[in-house]
Design brief:
heterodimer, A: about 270 residues, mainly alpha, MetI-like fold, 2 domains, about 0% strand, B: about 300 residues, globular
Chain lengths: ~270, ~300
């Protein structure tokens, strides 16, 4: 196929222009966050006297330092719990041909359709009775349940379509126990889909705001979105300071994204294509 | 005897590991099934979350929540979801077609456009709240002032405020739509395109008759994700307008939260959540059936 140079230039300029439009809000975000208080020139002109004071103030005056730790702990524990129980459940669900396992599989899929808005109220009462409101355990319990249906769906589908049963049968003939087969033969083959699950669950848990808004309100521990919400409420109109806090909150997840961007994008597209 | 047992075990490794389902089933029942069933039951009561045991009130909550603001909020929810789905898919597909071609540095451009997805929607919401902030405050307005143009109170007017929410959502999620289309485009064989080009088909005809049918699965995924995500939007609205001005950018999701957090009317909140759940279920089912039928026709 021949592409004329005019079309080539048009394609390039449209692509770069589109990307610049996407970057524009980020430019404003950074530009405003490095501006000293009292500087009232338009946010679109580069700051004349850039300063990092806003970052220092945002770091010391918000609950972000502790929130970053809390978010890491919540995301890590929830992701591990979900992956372990979802992988275990998916194996018999994918391999067994009985009617019961099919019924169980579809029962898990029903969870994909139920919106959290319905379940969160009774869960609130349950957590309150267990005295877990305001603690991270309420979040971990909720996330382990809400991310489960999709994880089971992905892993079971992957097992059925992309993992041949020959390896398992061969290992069994060689005298491996069922648990051993799962542990040493099946698990290593699941690495790609487990990666996809960790990425999708991790991003949604890390950024989730509604669940902590309901279950952490009144508690001492906060996750990053909660810390941002409280900080914005406190400094309603000090945008340079707020923007510094937004940037701090974005750094951990953007750093992970940029390091693993190939896997994140592939995992995202691959997971949702199936 | 040993032989028989051995044979039985060989038939099914997974069968002997049926108990592997138990931990997931326990969590699922306790965290998903029980609260949802309770939520449905409590939507028919005067539950306020207090110590007083809830009393059965029939459809009273439904009658109450379906009056007043809810009708307008329901239309707004649908409108938002529709506009977001259309814009995200048109822009996302356009970008995917563009960045699937020979563009220098296209991987970097993809990485940049996808990046907003990993950021919290709340943070994105605050960013756009400032950009389109009131005259004398917001970023766009400071630009208008510098250019000597009249400033606009974007968020003070419900119509424009709703569009700012749309812009924030589209900015954040178009990259993910694009990435799904890009994955779909990898399945379009280059030979097919070349053959069509040799037969004299122009760009648009090639797109319509060669590319589009092969993208059917990606289109289904994107429209489904967009619709479900659009109907359930909460964080962005909460950050940009918090439902204001005057409750005129409230959607079902934000109303459910208000009934719960501001008014403590748990029963009514549950009834409204139930309305949302049923609507999401019905609309996704209709959309899915239509899209599947079209996929099959091709």
């Amino acid at each position: 196929m021949k592409t004329s140079s005019a079309a080539k230039i048009a394609g390039h300029s449209t692509a770069y222009l589109a990307t610049l439009i996407f970057l524009f809000p980020v430019y404003v975000l950074i530009n405003l966050s490095i501006r000293p208080p009292g500087d009232l020139t338009t946010a679109l002109i580069p700051s004349a006297r850039p300063t990092l004071d806003n970052f220092v103030n945002a770091w010391t005056e918000s609950s972000l330092p502790g929130a970053i730790v809390t978010s890491i702990v919540v995301t890590a524990i929830s992701s591990v719990v979900v992956i372990v129980i979802a992988t275990m459940a998916s194996y018999p669900l994918a391999r067994s041909t009985t009617r019961w396992s099919n019924v169980a599989f579809y029962a898990f899929l029903v969870g994909l359709l139920l919106p959290f808005q319905l379940a969160f109220l009774p869960l609130y009462a349950i957590m309150r009775d267990l005295q877990l409101i305001g603690t991270i355990w309420s979040l971990i319990i909720v996330y382990s349940g809400t991310t489960l249906p999709f994880s089971i769906f992905l892993i079971t589908t992957f097992l059925r379509t992309s993992v041949p049963t020959e390896y398992e049968e061969a290992a069994q003939i060689d005298g491996c126990s069922p648990v051993g087969v799962f542990r040493h033969v099946v698990m290593p083959l699941l690495r790609p889909v487990i990666g996809t699950c960790v990425i999708l669950n991790g991003v949604s848990i890390w950024n989730d705001f509604f669940t902590p808004l309901v279950y952490l309100t009144g508690g001492r521990q906060v996750t990053i979105p909660m810390a941002i919400y409280q900080f914005v409420g406190q400094y309603a109109s000090n945008w340079p300071l707020i923007f510094a806090s937004l940037i701090i909150s974005m750094i951990p997840v953007l750093a992970v994204y940029l390091v693993f961007q190939r896997y994140v994008i592939q995992g995202f597209a691959g997971g949702l294509k199936g | 005897m040993r032989e028989v047992r051995h044979g039985r075990r060989r038939r099914s490794i997974a069968g002997s590991l049926w108990w592997f389902v138990l931990p997931a089933a326990a969590v699922y029942v306790l965290v998903v099934i029980v609260p949802n069933v309770q939520g449905i039951a409590l939507s028919f009561t005067d539950w306020t979350g207090g110590v007083k045991p809830p009393e059965f009130t029939g459809f009273e909550n439904y009658a109450t929540v379906l009056q007043g603001e809810t009708g307008a909020a329901a239309w707004r929810t649908l409108y938002l979801a529709f506009v977001v789905v259309v814009l995200q898919n048109v822009i996302g597909l356009g970008l995917a077609l563009l960045l699937n071609g020979a563009i220098r540095g296209r991987n970097i451009l993809r990485t940049i456009i996808f990046a907003p997805l990993v950021v919290s929607p709340l943070v994105v919401g605050y960013l756009f709240k400032y950009l389109f902030g009131a005259p004398g405050v917001g970023g766009i307005n400071s630009l208008l002032r510098a250019l000597g143009l009249p400033q606009v109170d974007f968020l003070g007017n419900p119509t424009t405020a709703l569009w700012i929410i749309v812009v924030a959502v589209v900015w954040q999620f178009t990259g993910s739509t694009m990435v799904i289309y890009l994955a779909g485009l990898q399945g379009v064989p280059a030979e097919l395109q070349e053959a069509a080009a040799l037969d004299g088909a122009g760009y648009w005809r090639r797109f319509w008759y060669v590319t589009r049918p092969l993208l059917a699965a990606a289109i289904t995924v994107n429209l489904m994700l967009g619709l479900i995500g659009g109907l359930k939007l909460f964080d962005t609205i909460f950050a940009v307008t918090a439902g204001g001005p005057g409750g005129q950018t409230n959607t079902i999701s934000t109303l459910v939260y208000q009934l719960f957090a501001q008014f403590g009317r748990y029963g009514q909140a549950a009834a409204l959540a139930m309305v949302l759940a049923v609507a999401v279920g019905i609309l996704s089912f209709i959309q899915f059936s239509v899209l599947r039928r079209q996929e099959k026709q091709q």
